[in-house]
């Protein structure tokens, strides 16, 4: 049966009818009225849900998703359409965000679990939060941290029952200058989240019965409202990090009102990416049939919570003096290329949204800057006016000049890493340029393999050109991949091991 055609206008109208409170216009703060500079350094709000792919913004015109608040925010923001997750996996991204260093230097190659004892964020690292604290900021961290190595006796948790343990408490001395702590490491029951607070001990935490993005937004709004000065010193700027877990699996754990948005749309309309084969009986096709609607529902739920946060900033008179960033730790294939989720070099996994708004200072526009994860730390600190505090050990590059005025370094490529944990000389290494993706694979007992995609001619990355274009493979490796690996001292590169 041939699927019925649905226009985007029809989709948006139908979706809005199911969420009557959703904004469909450009959103709040369409134009800043203030001409003067803030009297003190701007505040920072950094929101990063887990597993939210770049295509999951409705304004990108790719996935048929209903994201009215994010679309309105994007119209007010710098939209980096080619921001990439250097190592598209939870813990490595977070470690690079916090340290500004690549995986070789910070030592977090994979997820922090009991499988790799001691692989965690170093206590002595000078993290982004440490530097912001030194700059005079009050700092809040709410949600998923995932930078601790679980150790016995393991904390009681559903995801600590199996052979591999995931959850762990973060003691105060390892919170890297965070003043308001309301976080956990990793736990995926979105309707029954738990958190450790400033005063919690390892054996005592807060148990909640509410969808985690709703609850975490409520907590973030209380921090912003700061009734009676309970949460922060109102005389000082603040930095709020809000790390939602959804749209991370399990996808079915999402409120029904968001599911209704997609209930009546055929899967053939929603699964519009050509690298998804709905006609097959593959694992990826089954996953799409079972979970894509719920994944999109989670994105719409996150969008609504982000809209509530923006509205709170506006209501409290904070919007004009606050830099707001919306991004993600990595994307999600969810059936694309028959892949389950992330941790691969395909664009659905590698590319993430990156929207940054600062009214009157950052001109709203799109830019194809190849932003890498370690660049975020120095860029944000520089943007807030304290580039002098960025530690010399930080390996990322500041793009604050480009954010503010459109000028500055523009890398021709960004690095991708997919290590074989346990042997850093093996695994995948690659680069993405604006046109090409090159990946080289080295695994035990297998000959090296190469992947080359022309992302302009083949945007869904369906044809591997490596054998047809060996000279281009060699050129990209020589010009981009090998210099990146040499720069960060990656033992994967021959002669480095």
Overview of the molecule:
The structure is a single chain. The chain is of the alpha/beta class and 497 residues long. It folds into two domains: 8-21 and 38-409, Alkaline Phosphatase, subunit A (3-Layer(aba) Sandwich); 416-487, Arylsulfatase, C-terminal domain, CATH 3.30.1120. The chain has 13 helices and 14 strands. Strands 6-5-4-3-7-1-8-9-2-10 form a ten-stranded mixed sheet, with helices on both faces. A four-stranded antiparallel sheet has the order 11-12-13-14, covered by helices on one side. A hairpin with a 7-residue loop joins strand 11 and strand 12 (427-432). The longest helix is centred in the middle third of the chain and has 33 residues, at 283-315. The model is unreliable at 24-28 and 30-38 (pLDDT under 50).
Question: If classified by CATH, what would the architecture of the largest domain be?
Answer: 3-Layer(aba) Sandwich
- What is the total number of structural domains? 2
For the record, what CATH class of the largest domain applies? Alpha Beta
Q: Note the overall shape.
A: globular
Seen as an oligomer or otherwise, the chain set is: single chain
Please outline the helices and strands.
Blueprint: H1 8-18, E1 43-47, H2 68-75, E2 78-80, H3 90-99, H4 103-106, H5 128-134, E3 138-144, E4 180-184, E5 194-197, E6 206-207, H6 212-225, E7 238-243, H7 256-263, H8 267-270, H9 283-315, E8 322-327, H10 347-350, E9 354-357, E10 365-367, H11 376-383, H12 400-405, E11 414-419, E12 427-432, E13 436-442, E14 449-454, H13 470-487
Parallel strand pairs: 1-7, 1-8, 2-10, 3-4, 3-7
Antiparallel strand pairs: 2-9, 4-5, 5-6, 8-9, 11-12, 12-13, 13-14
Helix pairs in contact: 1-7, 6-9, 7-9
């Amino acid at each position: 049966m041939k699927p019925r055609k649905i226009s985007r206008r029809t989709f948006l109208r139908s979706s809005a009818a199911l969420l009557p409170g959703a904004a469909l216009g450009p959103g709040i703060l369409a134009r800043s009225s203030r001409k003067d500079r803030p009297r003190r350094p701007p505040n920072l709000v950094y929101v990063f849900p887990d597993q939210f792919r770049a295509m999951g913004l409705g304004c990108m015109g790719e996935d048929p998703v209903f994201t009215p608040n994010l679309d309105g925010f994007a119209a007010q923001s710098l939209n980096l359409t080619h921001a990439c997750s250097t190592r598209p996996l939870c813990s490595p991204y977070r470690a690079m965000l916090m340290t500004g260093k690549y995986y070789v230097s910070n030592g977090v190659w994979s997820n922090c679990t009991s499988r790799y004892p001691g692989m965690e964020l170093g206590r002595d690292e000078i993290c982004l939060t440490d530097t912001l604290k030194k700059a005079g900021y009050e700092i809040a961290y709410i949600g998923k941290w995932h930078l601790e190595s679980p150790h016995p006796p393991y904390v009681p948790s559903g995801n600590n029952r199996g052979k591999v343990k995931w959850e762990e408490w973060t003691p105060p001395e390892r919170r890297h200058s965070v003043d308001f702590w309301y976080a956990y490491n990793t736990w995926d029951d979105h309707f029954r989240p738990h958190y450790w607070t400033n005063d919690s001990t390892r054996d005592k935490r807060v148990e909640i019965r509410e969808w985690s993005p709703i609850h975490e937004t409520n907590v973030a709004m209380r921090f912003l409202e700061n009734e009676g000065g309970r949460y922060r010193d109102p005389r000082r700027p603040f930095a709020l990090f809000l790390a939602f877990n959804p749209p991370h699996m399990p996808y079915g754990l999402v409120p029904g009102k968001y599911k209704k948005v997609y209930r009546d749309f055929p899967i053939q309309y929603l699964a519009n990416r050509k690298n998804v084969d709905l006609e097959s009986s593959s694992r990826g096709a089954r996953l799409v049939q079972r979970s894509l609607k719920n994944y999109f529902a989670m994105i719409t739920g996150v969008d609504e919570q982000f809209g509530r946060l923006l509205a709170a900033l506006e209501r409290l008179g904070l919007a004009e003096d606050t830099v707001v960033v919306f991004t993600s730790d990595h994307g999600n294939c969810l059936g694309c290329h028959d892949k389950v989720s992330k941790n691969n070099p395909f664009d659905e996994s590698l590319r993430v949204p990156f929207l940054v708004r600062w009214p009157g200072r950052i001109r709203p526009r799109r830019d194809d800057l190849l932003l890498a994860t370690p660049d975020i730390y120095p860029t944000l600190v520089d943007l807030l006016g304290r580039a002098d505090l960025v530690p010399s050990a930080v390996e990322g590059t500041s793009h604050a000049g480009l954010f503010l005025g459109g000028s500055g370094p523009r890398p021709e490529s960004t690095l991708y890493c997919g290590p074989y944990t346990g042997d850093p000389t093996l695994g995948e290494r690659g680069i993405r340029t604006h046109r090409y993706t090159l990946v080289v694979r080295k695994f035990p007992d297998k000959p090296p393999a190469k992947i080359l995609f022309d992302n302009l001619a083949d945007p869904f990355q369906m044809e591997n050109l490596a054998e047809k274009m060996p000279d281009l493979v060699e050129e990209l490796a020589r010009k981009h991949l090998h210099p990146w690996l040499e720069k960060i001292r990656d033992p994967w590169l021959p002669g480095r091991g």
